[in-house]
UniProtKB/TrEMBL annotation:
One of its GO terms (biological process) is cellular response to toxic substance. It comes from the Eukaryota. GO terms for molecular function: oxidoreductase activity, acting on a sulfur group of donors, NAD(P) as acceptor. Keywords: Disulfide bond, FAD, Flavoprotein, Oxidoreductase, Redox-active center. Signal peptide: none annotated. Belongs to the class-II pyridine nucleotide-disulfide oxidoreductase family. It comes from Octactis speculum. Residues 10-229 form the FAD/NAD(P)-binding domain. Pfam families: Pyr_redox_2. This is FAD/NAD(P)-binding domain-containing protein.
C-alpha cells in the first residue's frame, strides 16, 4: 500500500494494482497466542479462546482458566467470574501489569484464584462424541468426534514444578497486535501500532485515509463496536470525497 501520493496505490498478492482517492483501513488485529502444545487443537469450540465476552457463556457453572497479567486478563477474569463456577488466573510474574483498581477487584474476588509465577505449558483433553444437532443445529442422530479441553498444565517459573488445573475453558489474554504494518511510516500510529484517529472521527493523519475497527481500537475490540466504526468510516469517507469533488 502506498498512500504517499494520490491516487493511492494498492497492490494485491495476485499482482493486481488498484488506485483510489480514498481508503478505509479495516485490517483488524490478531490476538497473541501462547504457542504451546494443544493450543491449536482445542482452539474455538474445543475450549481455548481469546474472547471472554464472546465465549464465556459456554462455561456457565464450569471452571475456567485465564492467562495473563494486564488489564484484559483482569477484565476477562471478572467477566467469567459472573457465570463460571471458578476462575484460575495464571500469571508468570509475582505482580500484575494491570491497573491497581482492576488488580484489587480480582484479588478480592472469592471466585478467582491467582497462580503467581507460573506459565501455562500445555492444553490437555480428549476427543468426545457430540451430536451434530447439538453442535451445528442439524437434525438427525449423527455424532461427530470433537476435541474438548479438560485441563491445563502450568509450571512454576521459580522451581519448575508442574501443576494440573482442571477446567472446561481457557482464555488467553496476553494482548493483540493490529494488522497495520502495511501503513508503517505512512500513517500516524500509537506506540502499539494502532492507527491514530483524529478529532473523534475515523480520519487518520493522511487525508482520505480512514480507520475502522480493531486496527484503530485497542480498548473495546468487539464486533458491534467495529461495525459501528465501519459505518462512521463510510460516512466520513463519503463526506470527504464529496468535499473534494470526487462524488457525484
Amino acid at each position: 500500500v502506498d498512500v504517499s501520493k494520490r491516487p493511492f496505490l494498492v497492490r494485491t498478492e495476485g499482482g493486481e494494482q488498484l488506485r483510489t482517492q480514498s481508503m478505509i483501513v479495516a485490517t483488524g488485529a490478531e490476538a497473541r497466542w501462547l504457542g504451546v502444545p494443544g493450543e491449536d487443537r482445542f482452539r474455538g469450540k474445543g475450549g481455548v479462546s481469546t474472547c471472554a465476552t464472546c465465549d464465556g457463556f459456554m462455561y456457565r457453572d464450569k471452571p475456567v482458566v485465564v492467562v495473563g497479567g494486564g488489564d484484559t486478563a483482569m477484565e476477562d477474569a471478572l467477566v467469567l467470574a459472573r457465570t463460571s463456577s471458578k476462575v484460575t488466573l495464571i500469571h508468570r510474574r509475582d505482580t500484575f501489569r494491570a491497573s491497581r483498581a482492576l488488580a484489587i477487584r480480582v484479588m478480592d474476588h472469592d471466585k478467582i484464584t491467582v497462580k503467581w509465577n507460573m506459565t501455562l505449558v500445555s492444553f490437555e483433553g480428549s476427543d468426545q462424541q457430540t451430536s451434530t444437532q447439538a453442535y451445528a443445529g442439524a437434525s438427525g442422530d449423527d455424532s461427530v468426534s470433537l476435541p474438548q479441553l479438560s485441563h491445563v498444565i502450568a509450571a512454576s517459573t521459580v522451581s519448575g514444578a508442574r501443576e494440573r488445573i482442571d477446567c472446561a475453558g481457557a482464555f488467553v489474554a496476553i494482548g493483540h497486535d493490529p494488522n497495520t504494518k502495511l501503513f508503517e511510516s505512512q500513517v500516524l500510529m500509537g506506540p502499539n501500532g494502532y492507527l491514530v484517529t483524529l478529532n473523534h472521527t475515523t480520519a487518520t493523519s493522511v487525508q482520505g485515509v480512514f480507520a475502522a475497527g480493531d486496527a484503530a481500537d485497542h480498548l473495546y475490540r468487539q464486533a458491534i463496536t467495529s461495525a459501528g466504526s465501519g459505518a462512521m468510516a463510510s460516512l466520513d469517507a463519503e463526506r470527504w470525497l464529496s468535499a473534494q469533488g470526487f462524488a457525484s
